[in-house]
Inverse folding.
């Protein structure tokens, strides 16, 4: 039986993926926080990806495949730490893959790496430029992770590397930035803007990651869900009420509130509330036959307050 | 896009009740019958749209028939009562993907909205004319949302291809501002056509429907276009007309000319979309020739500009 090592296994998405993978694989995982009452037979190692101890885990567990989703996606820990954990952690992990005979690697990137811009065409494919750093420098580490993994994909073709860029993930278990935003009772929006947003359910994303492993997928793939709605519809459907704020007020306000630690996202995130990032997921669907199980209404229902 | 969840009917808009509802009914009762009929017609036509909608009533690009239901009446009134649009051979509009190519004139794009209205009110089945807008539109608050809900997108090649792949009717004015802001002396003289639409038609195997719009060319006679000053001010054009800028923004409004819209035969082109300009231009010239002959016919047939 193949053995899969999951980084970030204690997070909501990691736990869901573990349950899905246990059908066909032996699973072990690493995380910076423990997973209490994890399933029997799943070994959890509490390590930092940047430390030598992580290499020891790979050396002893000898996984044939790695799913890399152990990223810091919030800003609570400080910019430098976040960048270091994500970028240097990924770099170390890629080196270990080469040195310890890992055959398959799935890296969970995101749709945010494309960046939200007024000139974004609808339904971008995987060859679109990764411009997020231009307007949202706080997430440039995620762009760097994606770029590192994509370069690795070409440099080591004997390792089946797959970079997945899913759209906004929602669900009961995951803690995503968008989930946190939609989870507010009063949700700030930019007055006069209402971009289309694509969503995917957390269970469907687990299925997509598992399919990527099962199909030995190699390449970069967008992963899309059942469809798209305007931001304000999403807010309404998840049980919040939108508070439109003029952009000229919103930017300086968010800047300050973020610096004082009163809101979890910096002003750069505002562009994501103005302009759409809609992706074409046809490459992934053609490669794996992926069909998502959860429709938009079920997705919103799963996080409805 | 790719969901297996079954497609449900868009939700019915909630009916207002109580005092505001009664007030609304009262005001509604004062509206002339012809206007209420026109509104009823818009609603009926919107229900027959072939465009696929999701369970929230939006298409893949944020177009929303419910928005058009509440916002189309002014344009429909212009169509019926101000420009008294006469539409010829609209049955030539093919079902499925099509590039609708027309002349562009009259300082403000009333020709685009009248062509859109013709396709909504007269075509069978009704279609939304998907507009290809200017690059600055997504940056403008409110305007960006209204454009998207009405079915328009930024005119990038990628957007045009996405819409055609979904079977939409995309409306393109290859003259752009060259046509819209030309002077009165050049009326019914087609300006240089951009080549982009032909490359997209070849790439996606989309038929081209030439359309000649008679009337818009006289709606707001321009005497000059201060393009130098316009670009210094960051505007697409700065026309000097009979009434603009002398009467302020109101001076941009069109005269009550009579519109005649002539639909030509759809043409299917074949060839390499990445051919050099000269080869593409030959094909474009054919479309231009078709539109010119539709215009000539329209100008010949009419008895006057306003009748």
């Amino acid at each position: 039986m193949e053995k899969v090592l999951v980084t970030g296994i204690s997070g909501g998405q990691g736990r869901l993926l573990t349950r899905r993978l246990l059908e066909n694989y032996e699973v072990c995982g690493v995380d910076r926080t423990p997973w209490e009452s994890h399933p029997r037979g799943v070994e959890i190692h509490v390590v930092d990806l940047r430390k030598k101890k992580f290499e020891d885990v790979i050396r002893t567990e000898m996984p044939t495949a790695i799913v890399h989703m152990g990223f810091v996606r919030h800003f609570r820990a400080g910019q430098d730490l976040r960048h270091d954990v994500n970028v240097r952690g990924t770099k170390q992990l890629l080196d270990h893959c080469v040195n310890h005979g890992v055959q398959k690697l799935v890296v969970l990137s995101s749709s945010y790496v494309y960046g939200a811009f007024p000139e974004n065409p609808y339904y971008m494919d995987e060859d679109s430029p990764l411009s997020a750093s231009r307007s949202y420098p706080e997430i440039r580490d995620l762009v760097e992770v994606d770029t590192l993994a994509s370069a690795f994909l070409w440099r080591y073709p004997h390792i089946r590397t797959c970079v997945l860029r899913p759209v906004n993930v929602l669900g009961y278990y995951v803690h995503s930035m968008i989930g946190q935003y939609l989870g507010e009772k009063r949700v700030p929006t930019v007055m006069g803007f209402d971009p289309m947003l694509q969503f995917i359910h957390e269970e469907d994303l687990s299925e997509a990651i598992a399919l990527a492993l099962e199909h030995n997928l190699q390449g970069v793939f967008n992963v899309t869900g059942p469809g798209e709605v305007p931001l304000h519809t999403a807010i309404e459907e998840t049980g919040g009420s939108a508070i439109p704020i003029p952009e000229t007020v919103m930017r300086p306000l968010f800047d300050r509130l973020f610096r004082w630690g009163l809101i979890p996202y910096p002003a750069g995130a505002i562009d994501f509330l103005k302009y759409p990032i809609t992706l074409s997921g046809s490459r992934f669907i053609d490669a794996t036959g992926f069909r998502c199980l959860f429709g938009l209404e079920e997705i919103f229902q799963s996080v409805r307050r | 896009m790719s969901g297996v969840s079954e497609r449900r009917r868009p939700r019915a808009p909630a009916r207002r009740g109580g005092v505001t509802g009664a007030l609304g009914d009262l005001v509604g009762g004062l509206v002339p019958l012809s206007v209420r009929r026109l509104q009823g017609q818009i609603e009926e036509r919107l229900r027959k749209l072939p465009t696929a909608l999701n369970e929230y009533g939006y298409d893949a690009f944020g177009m929303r028939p419910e928005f058009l239901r509440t916002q189309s009446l002014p344009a429909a009134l212009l169509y019926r009562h101000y420009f008294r649009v006469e539409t010829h051979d609209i049955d030539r509009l093919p079902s499925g993907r099509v590039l609708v190519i027309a002349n562009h004139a009259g300082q403000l794009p009333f020709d685009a909205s009248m062509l859109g209205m013709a396709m909504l009110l007269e075509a069978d089945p009704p279609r939304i004319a998907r507009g290809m807008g200017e690059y600055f539109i997504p940056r403008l608050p409110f305007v960006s949302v209204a454009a998207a809900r009405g079915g328009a997108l930024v005119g990038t090649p990628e957007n045009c291809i996405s819409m055609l792949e979904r079977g939409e009717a995309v409306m393109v004015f290859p003259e752009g501002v060259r046509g819209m802001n030309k002077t009165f002396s050049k009326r019914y003289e087609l300006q240089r056509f951009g080549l982009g639409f032909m490359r997209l038609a070849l790439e996606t195997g989309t038929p081209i429907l030439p359309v000649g719009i008679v009337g818009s060319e006289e709606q707001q006679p321009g005497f000059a276009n201060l393009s130098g000053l316009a670009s210094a001010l960051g505007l697409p054009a700065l026309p000097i007309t009979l009434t603009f800028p002398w009467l302020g923004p109101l001076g941009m409004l069109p005269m009550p000319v009579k519109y005649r819209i002539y639909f030509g035969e759809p043409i299917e082109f074949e060839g390499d979309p990445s051919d050099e300009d000269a080869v593409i231009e030959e094909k474009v010239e054919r479309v231009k020739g078709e539109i010119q002959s539709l215009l000539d016919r329209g100008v010949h047939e009419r008895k006057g500009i306003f009748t």
Notes: Chain A has a mean pLDDT of 95. The radius of gyration of chain A is 19 Å. Chain A touches chain B at residues 118-119, 121-124, 190-196, 224-230, 233, 237, 246-247, 275-276, 281-282, 285, 290-298 (CB under 8 Å). The longest strand of chain A covers residues 160-166.
